[in-house]
Specification:
Chain B: It holds the Pfam family HODM_asu-like. Chain B: This is DUF3445 domain-containing protein. Chain B: InterPro entries: HODM_asu-like (IPR021848). Chain A: Residues 117-160 form the Dimethylamine monooxygenase subunit DmmA-like C-terminal domain. The complex is a heterodimer of chains A (177) and B (339). Chain A is of the alpha/beta class. Chain A folds into 2 domains: 25-108; 116-175. Chain A contains 3 helices and 11 strands. Chain A has helices at 34-43, 59-71, 86-98, and strands at 25-29, 49-53, 79-83, 106-108, 116-120, 126-130, 132-133, 135-136, 143-151, 156-161, 174-175. In chain A, strand 1, helix 1 (34-43) and strand 2 (49-53) form a beta-alpha-beta unit. In chain A, helix 2 runs parallel beside helix 3. Chain A is elongated and about 60 Å long. The two termini of chain A are 17 Å apart. Chain B has 339 residues and is of the alpha+beta class. Chain B contains 13 helices and 10 strands. Chain B has helices at 21-25, 65-78, 90-107, 146-151, 183-186, 191-194, 206-215, 243-246, 258-261, 291-294, 298-309, 313-318, 325-333, and strands spanning 43-44, 83-85, 112-117, 120-125, 130-135, 157-164, 167-174, 223-232, 262-273, 280-290. In chain B, strand 4 and strand 5 (130-135) form a beta hairpin. The two termini of chain B are 33 Å apart. The chains are: A alpha/beta (177), B alpha+beta (339). At the A-B interface, strand 9 and strand 10 of A face helix 5, helix 6 and helix 8 of B.
């Protein structure tokens, strides 16, 4: 098997553009991605622009929890700008959709790393920061081919055992694009 | 020939699954030409179709009913996540229950009956010895969640596609006999996303045209198409989840066992608009036929040879035939001396 060259479920990303007017401009990011959104933030009138940051101590989980709280009471015309690792981008987007926003209100910046979230199709374990294929599943130990087939719901690429047809094959690892 | 369910056979381990002569005769052989090419091969599913054919009714119940329901039970016990329904799909699940129960009771009155008294429904499935009364629309009155309850009583996989923004989303399903796709991973995907891994067809515009057609299907006007692949052994559950269990099957084909090992796997896919939810019910009814049985029909034997021989390499790869494609072509060639 080869890594599929052009799988249509794989998202493409563009640098976010400021959309105005907006009731509230929310800039949501992981610390290492702040630079991607800083220029847009600077363009906003400060009253309607707000950072939602994961800090080193509380981490991403806390950010998502506080964002969820925040989205309960935001203006209808809120816009979201999201930057960080790819899995994080989709976690924020899915959380926003649950809160009643629509995709048109949400812009996802190009991921700050090539690390992928990987979904093991055999045991459903999710792994973060996968940069090479095949990758050993942290759940079931199987050697997974990292495919380009992507789920927005999981924010993840699918991994399928690379040597299920002949377990004696141990293909060399290749860095993912 | 109308088919009566026979005792349980297996789709795993000792693979006792077999087709009677009647089942072979009604097998939906999917190739209209000697070369297989992608097409938007969708046509109206007008019922009743020819008597005794797989197209006679909305849902085909055949001699493998008990075997497939037993197999489904094994898969779901092993992995309950092979069935799922997002909360917003509850109404669509009840649409599906209504459509399936009404069709089954009307088309197979010897096996199924349905009594409706207002919202009090009584369902009797004599094949599985199920006799339940429930309040239509109230999932708490069923012994199982509605998708699983109905899905455990009909052959084939089922998905419910939510239609919004001109697209279709895979938001519910019971998928225990897929041709290598995972409901758990593909859940929530749009039409073009869940077809993402299919080679070539996107570039040919197949999915754009199919989506336009499917989103326009009205209530009461179901459509159908056939899809196919090959499967080694009569294995229903060729899911990615269980690929580690069946991957080595593909390396087990030899020149001597092609006829018994290799099966033509055909999906009769039917799409039917649900009246309350506007979802599409997508049924994927799988038929398996060993090459030994297939070549009892000389026309099929000859055509199968030609189709496999001319199959583009991308499709050989995508369908996972790489390890035994040459062996299968060689074995079939004896039935097609002109080629």
């Amino acid at each position: 098997m080869q890594i599929d060259p052009s799988i249509k479920s794989r998202p493409t990303y563009q640098a976010p553009m400021l959309e105005e007017p907006a009731g509230l401009q929310l800039f949501v990011c992981q610390p290492e991605a702040r630079g991607l959104l800083e220029p847009l933030y600077q363009q906003c009138a400060s009253a309607q622009a707000q950072w939602v940051l994961a800090d080193e101590e509380t981490g991403t989980e806390a950010l998502l929890a506080s964002l969820q709280q925040m989205l309960v009471n935001v203006p209808v015309s809120t816009r979201l700008y999201v930057a960080g690792h790819e899995g994080f981008l989709w976690d924020v987007r899915n959380l926003a959709l649950e809160a009643g926003l629509v995709d048109e209100q949400i812009q996802l910046a190009p991921p700050v790393s090539r690390g992928r979230r990987l979904f093991c199709t055999h045991c459903y374990t999710l792994m973060e920061g996968v940069e090479a294929s095949p990758h050993s599943c942290s759940g079931c130990g199987r050697l997974l081919l990292v495919r380009d087939h992507f789920s927005r719901l999981h924010g993840a690429y699918v991994g399928v055992q690379i040597n299920a047809e002949d377990p004696s094959e141990l293909p060399e690892q290749e860095v993912l694009q | 020939m109308r088919m009566s369910p026979k005792p349980v056979q297996t789709f795993r381990d000792d693979f006792t699954y077999s087709n009677s002569p009647g089942a072979i005769a009604r097998f939906p052989f999917p190739f209209p030409e000697d070369e297989y090419r992608y097409s938007v091969n969708i046509e109206p599913h007008v019922t009743p179709g020819p008597e005794g054919s797989v197209y006679e009714f909305l849902l085909d119940i055949d001699e493998h009913y008990l075997s497939e329901m037993a197999e489904r039970d094994i898969v779901l016990k092993e992995n309950p996540q092979r069935c799922l329904a997002m909360p917003h799909m509850d109404l669509a699940c009840w649409d599906m229950i209504e459509r399936c129960m009404q069709s089954l009771a009307a088309d197979y009155p010897q096996h199924f009956s349905l009594t409706i008294d207002g919202d009090q429904w009584t369902w009797h499935n004599r094949l599985l010895n199920i006799h339940d009364s429930f309040t239509f629309g109230d999932s708490s009155t069923l012994p199982l969640p509605p998708m699983e309850y109905m899905g455990r009583q009909v052959q084939g996989d089922f998905a419910l596609l939510d239609q919004r923004d001109g697209d279709l989303f895979l938001d519910a399903g019971i998928v225990t006999c897929p041709a290598d796709w995972s409901l758990a991973f593909d859940a929530g995907m749009s039409f073009s996303e869940w077809h993402g891994p299919v080679p070539m067809a996107h570039e040919m515009g197949v999915f754009d045209r199919a989506l336009k057609y499917l989103t326009a299907i009205p209530v009461g006007r179901p459509v159908r198409r056939l899809n196919w692949t090959l499967t080694v052994n009569a294995r229903m559950d060729t899911s990615p989840e269980t690929y580690p269990n069946w991957g080595t099957d593909r390396a087990s084909v030899t020149a001597d066992n092609v006829g018994e090992k290799v099966h033509l796997r055909v999906e009769l896919q039917v799409l039917d608009r649900m009246p309350r939810s506007n979802a599409l019910m997508f049924s994927i009814r799988t038929y398996l036929l060993s090459f030994d049985d297939l070549v009892t029909n000389p026309d099929w034997a000859r055509r199968m040879h030609r189709v496999l021989k001319t199959l583009p390499p991308e499709l050989v790869e995508y369908k996972g035939l790489g390890r035994y494609h040459d062996l299968a072509v060689e074995w079939l060639s004896r039935f097609d001396p002109a080629n």
